[in-house]
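Lecture 7 notes: from sequence to structure.

We start with a single chain of 278 residues. Read the sequence below before looking at the structure.
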Amino acid sequence: MLASTQLFPTDIVEIIIDVLAADDIQSVKSCALVCHAFLPLCRNHIFSIRLNDPTSRFRSHTARTFGRLLSTTPGIADHIRNLKYCVDVEDFKNPSLCDSLKRITKLQSFSVWHYSSMRTKFHWNNNPSQPALLRLLRFPTLTRLLLFGIDNIVASDFTPCINLKELEIEHVTAADAQSNDFLSTSSEKPIRLSNFSAGLQSATVTTQLCMTQRPNGTPLIDFTDLTRISVKLQYPDSVEASRELFKQCIQLASVYIHGMSLLFSTLIVPDNSFASSA
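Now the structure, written as C-alpha cells:
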C-alpha cells in the first residue's frame, strides 16, 4: 500500500482525505489503519474533540477522560484541530483540565458554550479555566470561533485572533467597555473576518466588536472583507447593533436576517448586498 501511494503527490492525497473527512469520518479512520503513509494526514481529522456535549449523537469525552487520554498519549494533543467544549462547572473542581487544554498547540476551530437546565450562563472573566481558554484564542492557527451562553466576555480578548475568519456568537454578553485591557504584545493588525454570525442576545458584544479600537487606533475587527453575515433580531438594541455592523460592510455577498418584521423594516441594509428575512 505504501508503494502505491507514491504514484500520487502527498498534497493530492491530503486534499482527498480532507474532502472525505467532511462527509465520512469513519472512512478516514479506516484510511489511517490500512496505510502508514495515510496516518499523519488522517490524524488531524480523527482527533476532533467534543467535551461534555449532551447533544452529540456519539459518546462525548468528559474533561476527566480527556485528561486521562492526553496523559497516556500526549502526542495526540499536537493533532487536535477542532475542539468543542461544553462548559461544566464540575470541571472547575478538576485542576487537570487546564493542564489538558494547555497541551493543545495547533487549534483551528474552537467552540465554547455552556448548557444548563437552569439557564445560567458561564462567566468568562470569573472562572478557573480562563487562562487556558485565553491561551487557545492566541493561536495563529485559529480561524473559526463559536461562543454560546457566555457572560461578561471582554472585547479585547479577541485581539490575538489575527487569523480568525469565522466568528459566531449567541447568548453572549459583553463586559463593561472600560474593562478592556489590551495585551502589550498584541498585534497592531485588525482581524479580517469573512463570516460573522450574531445570534440572539448578542447585541452588546456586536456593538463592542464594531466600536473597539486597538491601542494604535486601528479597529479591533475590520469588517470590510466580510462576505457572509447572519443576524437575529429580537429587541431594539439588536437592531442598533446590526445597523452599526452593516455600516462597516462593503463586500457582502450573502445576508441572512431572522427576526420580527417590524424590527427588520427598521434595519438599513447596504445597496450592494443581498438580504433575506425569515
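Confidence is low (pLDDT under 50) at residues 1-5, 270-278. Keep this in mind for problem set 3.
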